[in-house]
Amino acid sequence: MSTIRFPSGRPEAVSLPPLPWIYRAAMWKVAVASFALGAVVSLIMFGVQITLVRKNFQFQEVMLISSTTAGVLTGWLTYKAMCYAIQRRQALIHRVHVVAETNHHIRNALQSIQLSAYSLNDKPTIDAINDATARIDWVLSEVLTVDPPRDRR
C-alpha cells in the first residue's frame, strides 16, 4: 500500500488500497467468472428443485419456491456487485483527488525551485533547472492526466 505524505496543514497520510483482481483482469477472465457464477446459481436452483420434488411438493409450489430462491439469489448477487462498483468509484474519486493534490504540491515546489535558481546568477544551473522542471511539468500534464479506461478485449 503506497502512502503519500503532505506538508503540515494537509492530511498526514493517504493510503491507496491496491485494485482488486477483477479490475486488472482481461475481459475474457471477467466473462469466464460471470458465466461460472451463473453456473453456480443454476446448480443451486437445480438442487433446490430436486429437493422439493423429493419432498413431494406440488408443481406450482416447486416453481414458486425455486423462482423466489432464484430471484433472491440474483438480487443478492446484483446488490453485492453494485456495492462493489460504488466502492470502486469512490476509491477512483479518492485517487483522482490525491493525484490533483500531489500535482498542486509538486507545481508549487517547482515554482519555488525555479525562483531560487535565478538568485544564483549561474546560466548553466538555471538552464539545467529549467529543463528539469519542464520535464516534471510534462509528466504532470501528460502522464498523470485522468483518461477514461480503455476497453481491454
Topology:
Blueprint: E1 2-4, E2 14-16, H1 21-24, H2 27-54, H3 59-117, H4 123-143
Antiparallel strand pairs: 1-2
Helix pairs in contact: 2-3, 3-4
The H-and-E topology, N to C, reads as EEHHHH
Please give the share of residues in helix: over 70%
Which residues sit in consecutive blocks of at least 5 with pLDDT less than 50? Answer: 1-9
What structural class should be given to the helix and strand makeup?
A: mainly alpha
Tally of strands: 2
Beta-strand residue fraction:
under 5%
Give the end-to-end Cα distance, rounded to a whole number of Å. Answer: 28 Å
Please state the overall shape, judged from the principal axes of the Cα atoms.
rod-shaped
Count of folded domains? 1
Can you tell me about this structure?
- The chain has 153 residues and is mainly alpha-helical.
- It has one domain.
- It has helices at residues 21-24, 27-54, 59-117, 123-143; strands at residues 2-4, 14-16.
- A two-stranded antiparallel sheet has the order 1-2.
- Helix 2 (27-54) runs antiparallel to helix 3 (59-117) and helix 3 runs antiparallel to helix 4.
- The longest helix has 59 residues, at 59-117.
- The radius of gyration is 28 Å and the shape is rod-shaped.
Give a brief description.
The chain has 153 residues and is mainly alpha-helical. It contains 4 helices and 2 strands, in the order ββαααα.
